[in-house]
Amino acid sequence: MTHRSRLGTLAIDCKGDDLAEAMRFWSAALGSPVRLDPDDPRYAAIDRPPDEPKLLLQTVEHSSRVHIDLETDDQEAERARIEERSARLVERHPKGWIIMEAPTGHRFCLVAPHRADFPGDAREHP
Amino acid sequence: MTHRSRLGTLAIDCKGDDLAEAMRFWSAALGSPVRLDPDDPRYAAIDRPPDEPKLLLQTVEHSSRVHIDLETDDQEAERARIEERSARLVERHPKGWIIMEAPTGHRFCLVAPHRADFPGDAREHP
Q1: Does A107 touch chain B (CB under 8 A)?
Q2: What pTM value is reported for the model?
Q3: Under 8 Å between Cβ of A40 and A82
Q4: HSE on the CB side for A8, CA within 13 Å?
Q5: Which of B121, B105, B100 minimizes the C-alpha distance to A47?
Q6: How far apart are CA A69 and CA B91, in angstroms?
Q7: Is A19 on the interface with B (CB under 8 A)?
Q8: What is the ipTM of this complex?
Q9: Distance, in angstroms, between A39 CA and closest chain B CA?
Q10: If phi over 0 gives left and psi between -120 and 50 gives alpha, with beta otherwise, what is residue B36?
Q11: According to the model, what pLDDT value does residue B1 have?
Q12: Sequence-separated (6 or more) residues with CB below 8 Å from residue B103
C-alpha cells in the first residue's frame, strides 16, 4: 500500500477567542479577502490561488505562531513514516488531525486531504 | 506612487547553527529536495513549484518557529502601509529585510522581490 502527502495548509495561529482583529490585519497585509468559517468561527480562510497551499487563521490557547499542515490520504501511514524520521506524536486532536513535533521543534499537523486538487503534486510513499 | 506586495516566502526558522538535521527531516517530510545556499550555509531552499511562495530553512538564535515574508518592490512604503494597520517595526536587519510584528503577535519580514515571477499576482497599493 502506498499513500500520498504534501504541504496542505499554512495556519496562522492566533491566541485568543476572537479572530476579528487577526482577520482585519492579515486581510490587509496580504491584500486578500478573509472568510470566517460559517460552521466554526474559530477558523477563517484567507483567499489564495486555488492550486497553492491553503492559508488559515485559527484561534488557539497557546502563544500565537504559524504552523504547517501536511495533507495525506492515510494519516496513520503518514504518522508512521514521519516518526521514522524522528518526529514524535504529540496528540490526536478530537477534530481528526494528528499533531506532531519535528526534531527541529516545530509542531505541525497531519490532516485529511482538503485542497480541492488533491493528490495533485503530492508525493507517493511506498 | 503605487507599490506592490504579496506573500513571498514561508521560512522554517531552526534554532542552532547547523541545518543538517533540519534539511534531512524537512526534505523527507515534504518529499522535496533541499539545497543549502552555496553562499551562506545558514539558509537552505526547499523545492516548491516555481509559481508558489518559496519555502526556506534558516538557522536562528531564537526558538524555532515559522514565519512569513512579504515581498515588495518598496519596503519603506510597505512598512508604512503595514504600520497603519497596527503592526510595529521590530528591526531593520543588516541583510536588508525589515522585521515587523503583527498585532496578532506574529513576527514577519518585508523583503525585496525574490520570487522569479514578481510582481505576478501581487497586490497594488496606491
Answers
A1: no
A2: 0.95
A3: no
A4: 20
A5: B121
A6: 29
A7: no
A8: 0.94
A9: 23
A10: beta
A11: 82
A12: A21, A22, A25, B85, B86, B87
